[in-house]
Known about the structure:
This protein is mainly alpha-helical. It has helices at residues 11-22, 30-37, 45-59, 107-117, 127-149, 155-165, 183-197, 199-230, 239-269, 274-305, 315-332, 345-368, 374-383, 393-398, 406-428, and strands at 5-6, 28-29, 41-42, 69-72, 76-79, 96-97, 340-341.
Amino acid sequence: MRAGRIVPLIPRYLDLLLVLVERRHEAVHRHAIFDAVWSDVVVSEGALTQAVRSLRRALCDDPREPRFIRTVSRHGYQFVFQTVEELDDAEQATPTVESSENPAAAPDKVESALAILLARNGTTANGDARRDAAEQLHSLGTEEALRRLDSRPGHERARALLRDARWEVLGAGHVPILGQPGALLTAVHLAGLRLRRVWREIEERWAGAAVGGGLAGALGGTLGGLALCLGPHGRAALSLCAVLALLGAFVGGVGAVGVGAGLVAAEAVFRSARGAMIVALGAIGGSAIGGSAHLLARWTLEGLFGHAPSPLAGGVEGLLIGAGAGLGYALATHPEAGGMAAPRGMRRAIVVLLTGVGCGVAGLILALTGHHSGAMSLELLARSFPGSQVSLEPLARLLGEVSPGLATRLLIGSGEGALFGAGLAFGLTRRPR
């Protein structure tokens, strides 16, 4: 509050202020701040810098001569104002919300902020200055800023900055893109802006997803190998378990690269319609990697052996598994404050479970519609080579079937899907240290 009036703050920024005030006798390390304020999401270093900048603006603080928040180089931040009083709610006067300035009464401020926002690269206006200008325009009035922006040179990048900054200003208006001049270029600027800001986090999460998918594939291959070796009439050597584990790790890791890329890109770029875009990009990523793997496998087999079984898993299977993973992941994660979800404990277990269920259901649908999973494709491939030890008959007999039938396909499809989805989500939600 300032002079009895509430100064609106984004909830996360208020959390940050409280952490700094409560621990004002020390300089709080950046890692401790991330753990306390952004405990359930992964955000970039820039998000913390942005939050501190917004707090300083609310406190009318000057970073060059700080009265409230001091930057501790290569460490973090410290609240340095000496006099701090704690009052009970009953002692507070009835506050009123501090209203935004009337843009008509401050035309120079709007024009000055627009000039900074529209400045070309290479000028004195750097990225932080443009970001501050975008936030100031939201405070002065989003609608008025957009009206004056109109189609001035560079308006596409300026609109993208306004669109991105609206999440950091409480009460900011909507910034439409579709149906506006230069909509495509604005969308490209917005995507590039968000991807650049969190590229390091994207790389780490993508790698985590690939490792998680690979581990899930290795586990599935090992379990499948044991069933083939130890099941009724199993004649395969135990060494098959190691071979199938390696093959499963490769297939699971490659699949997770495609699906994980879609999920991570959706989290990084989209804050509006987040759930729908996670499902869509997960499906696209799965389809792309599945289709590419199908073509590569077919070309390899035809080149080496002159033929390849036609029902190899491919783009359709990848699309459905990717959509299932995206649906489960989107339902289980809701980071309204931005960033990429990194839940802990039981919340992380729920994300893993729901993503696994989504992929498991997708696997069931594939089996019911006659599409083949990885193990069924391997079975069909093995039939082309006399004397092969790979046969799903031992597993089928465990399920009461003489040869692999519907029950076997359903079990394999749902099991493979569930393992893949759980491993993918486990790796995707790993919080970088």
